[in-house]
């Protein structure tokens, strides 16, 4: 009886603990005001998406392409990057961010400050698939006079 109770405790308690960790503790582990953006690279569609792409909907799902992400100059951003399939990588050349490898099955955090205004391209830096060239998008960074910097970019 004690054995059954122990097994039930592990089978119920562990997932609950993991859920609590991911839903309650992890989102608050960044400094206040941090913009957390989760993107998943999908080689098959040649996109970055905010949708969750997991095994069962990989082939049948139609994830939404993320092309533009609005930011304000001075924003502190954490990108939580995932790959739904093969090795991708992530870079923001105008901010000297990356390239950072994004292997399948891992979540890679990349932090940066939107230190300049304008249209800043982000892209996959690894030739991952025939759709590689379309794995890109733009941060539209709104100028903020207080932050200074060149607003013409
Ligand atoms: Cu690529």
Low-confidence spans: none
The largest beta-sheet arranges its strands as: 2-1-4-7
Into which percent range does the helicity of residues fall?
10-25%
- The helix count comes to 1
* Record field, number of beta strands: 9
Short description:
It is built from one helix and nine strands; from the N terminus they run αβββββββββ. The protein is of the alpha/beta class and 153 residues long. The strands form three sheets. The chain has a four-stranded mixed sheet with strand order 2-1-4-7, with no helix packed on it. A three-stranded mixed sheet has the order 3-9-8, with no helix packed on it.
What report would you give on this structure?
The chain has 153 residues and is of the alpha/beta class. The protein has 2 domains: 1-30; 33-142, Immunoglobulin-like (Sandwich), CATH 2.60.40. It is built from 1 helix and 9 strands, in the order αβββββββββ. The chain has one helix at 2-25; strands spanning 35-42, 47-49, 68-72, 76-83, 88-92, 97-102, 107-113, 118-123, 136-142. The strands form 3 sheets. A 4-stranded mixed beta sheet has the order 2-1-4-7, with no helix packed on it. Strand 5 (88-92) and strand 6 (97-102) form a beta hairpin. The longest helix has 24 residues, at 2-25. It starts with a helix and ends in an 11-residue tail after the last strand. Bound molecules: copper (II) ion. The site of copper (II) ion has 7 residues, from loops.
